[in-house]
Amino acid sequence: MILFPAIDLKNGQCVRLEQGDMARATVFNLDPAAQAQSFAAQGFQYLHVVDLDGAFAGKPMNAQAVEAMLKVVSMPVQLGGGIRDLKTIEAWLSKGIARVIIGTAAVRDPALVKEAAKAFPGRVAVGLDARDGNVAVEGWAESSQVTALDIAQRFEDAGVAAIIFTDIARDGLLKGINWDATIALAEAISIPVIASGGLASIEDVRTLLSPRAKKLEGAIAGRALYDGRLDPAEALALIGAAKAA
Question: Quick check: 149 and 107 in contact, CB under 8 A?
Answer without folding.
Answer: no
